Amino acid sequence: NAGVMQNPRHLVRRRGQEARLRCSPMKGHSHVYWYRQLPEEGLKFMVYLQKENIIDESGMPKERFSAEFPKEGPSILRIQQVVRGDSAAYFCASSPHTGPGNTIYFGEGSWLTVV
Amino acid sequence: KNEVEQSPQNLTAQEGEFITINCSYSVGISALHWLQQHPGGGIVSLFMLSSGKKKHGRLIATINIQEKHSSLHITASHPRDSAVYICAVEETSGSRLTFGEGTQLTVNP
Q1: Which of A5, A7, A30, A43 to probe the B interface (max B CBs under 10 A)?
Q2: What is the DSSP pairing of strand A110-114 with strand A88-95?
Q3: Please, is B37 exposed, middle or buried when counting C-beta atoms within 10 Å of its C-beta (0-12, 13-18, 19+)?
Q4: How far apart are CA A102 and CA A92, in angstroms?
Q5: CB < 8 Å from B in window 15-74 of A
Q6: Mean pLDDT within A27-41
Q7: Does residue A48 contact residue A39 with C-beta atoms inside 8 Å?
Q8: Exposure of A70 by Cβ count < 10 A (0-12 exposed, 13-18 middle, 19+ buried)?
Q9: Sign of dihedral through CA atoms B101, B75, B90, A8?
Q10: Is B62 left (phi over 0), alpha (psi -120 to 50) or beta?
């Protein structure tokens, strides 16, 4: 039973390019969360998705960032026209259902470097 | 003021010492999580608590809901325990996590 799988683990993009980060949740999990960890800072919530629905995107920057979790395939966090300030570790987490007290499983993270 | 505060920010211990990391929060929560992160690595969930105390091996986590405080204890610490320990809360208003800034623990042999 594979854990939460994220790819790529490391991604280098030039300013202005697009970055796509993928997250396959644990088998049977239909809830996906994306978190960002900026250098020397704590983790911050970005977006919470269920299959085909964005439930809470209050932590997403208003421009250039989007997320989806299609019926088939992984969840994708997309960053358009990347800037140096987007350099961070992006973590995906999944849980089997919503409600208090779920064990949440994290992926290994995707480290984005914008040069 | 952050909704989740951890102390200390940095902690250095000798192998074998008993370690305590504290977490205080200011919001209503449905659960509190303790997480571990190694340098350049992923995040591992250590505990999920909604009341009382849990123990796993040398790790113990406690929570006092009335005082809005939790502690993570490590008994007989070992250099492999060196990592960042993060407290995170699930607010009653939703499923997402709000994180503390983390505690960098270094255990020297």
Answers
A1: A43
A2: antiparallel
A3: buried
A4: 15
A5: 31, 33, 35, 41-45, 48, 55-56, 59
A6: 91
A7: no
A8: exposed
A9: positive
A10: beta
Q: How far apart are CA A18 and CA A24, in angstroms?
A: 20
- Residue from B56, B87, B50, B49 nearest B74 by CA: B56
Cβ contact A43:B99 at 8 Å? yes
Indicate the pairing of strand A10-13 with strand A110-114: parallel
pLDDT at A28: 86
Task: Residue B1: name the closest of B22, B21, B36, B27 by CA.
Answer: B27
**More confidently predicted of B17 and A3:** B17
